[in-house]
Amino acid sequence: MGKSPIYGPVTSRRLGLSLGVDMVPYKVCSFDCIYCQIGPTKNPSVERRNFGFADNIVKAIQQKLEAGARADHITLGGSGEPTLNLETGDIIRGIKTLTDIPVAVLTNGSMLWDQKVRQDLCAADIVLPSLDAGDEETFKKINRPHPDISFERLLDGILSFSTEYSGKIWLEIFFIENINTSAAHVEKLKRLVQRIGPDKVHLNTAVRPPAEAFATAVDRNTLCAIAESIGDSTSVIAEFKENPDDAVEAELPEEALVDMLLRRPCTLNDIATALHVNPSLAVKLLDQLVARGRVTITSSGSRLYYVCKEESDFSQ
Ligand code: SF4
């Protein structure tokens, strides 16, 4: 066993302080989204596999909690599509024997046509599926799915899950400039949201460096106008408010920092907030990592992001 499949707690725009669980090895995913923050999917897959680390995940969470970790949610997600882990149900149930902290699952929704996947997710407290398109053509353009996942199959799965599940569904829609932002497309998405009936709808856009440079972000005003037209339960996912005053001076372990950057590109403030350190301390270590070539800096809009592309190896 190499890197731990548990990371954080990190700050999440939707889930507050989130203890993350990386459910699949790097980039095992059924989609190859143009906006993906963690890089391209070489071979999209719909095969659910037993990666053999359910016990490790549950034990690692137990150790974190015993060591005093605090979290608002324990979040199953990570470097790909979590439901491709055949042990998803066992992992959720195992976590729930340890703690009352709600379990949330981030999913692209592509496997919800499978009744076993829907059953597995019924053990979670919150499921956060994505739906970025209102038709097949746009779906293929944005999500570039495995050939077995048609738009109809994706939608049928989400609709079936929404009727069977008694927990909360928070739907995420990711908007890309000039791809799914026309009034006609927003209207299609609105009608689908009405059919699904999620508890919340979160609108997102490519503020972090995307897999494809042409996946450009929608501006905030446009996103707010779309939120208003979709309905009451819809909000733009707010940027998490950093509070550097709460930052604690401490040693910043290099591996904790690299571990965080392996999951997604982060700004200096993301890092300082998540790791509870002063930004001035974080920047010193980041400068060293950049000088050694372990971390690179990239820009998206007016922001600078720190990126680490080493592949995680916890499945080995
Ligand atoms: S954004 Fe999520 S669903 Fe899309 S390719 Fe990346 S990991 Fe897969």
Describe the structure.
The chain is of the alpha/beta class. The protein has ten helices and ten strands. The chain folds into two domains: 6-240, Aldolase class I (TIM Barrel, Alpha-Beta Barrel), CATH 3.20.20; 242-316, Orthogonal Bundle (Arc Repressor Mutant, subunit A), CATH 1.10.10. 34% of the residues lie in helices and 17% in strands. The chain has an eight-stranded mixed β-sheet with strand order 1-2-3-4-5-6-7-8. Strands 9-10 form a two-stranded antiparallel sheet. It binds iron/sulfur cluster.
SSE layout and pairing:
Blueprint: E1 6-12, E2 16-22, H1 54-66, E3 73-77, H2 88-98, E4 103-107, H3 115-121, E5 126-129, H4 136-143, H5 151-164, E6 168-175, H6 183-196, E7 200-205, H7 220-230, E8 234-236, H8 254-263, H9 268-274, H10 279-291, E9 296-300, E10 303-307
Parallel strand pairs: 2-3, 3-4, 4-5, 5-6, 6-7, 7-8
Antiparallel strand pairs: 1-2, 9-10
Helix pairs in contact: 1-2, 2-3, 9-10
This protein binds iron/sulfur cluster.
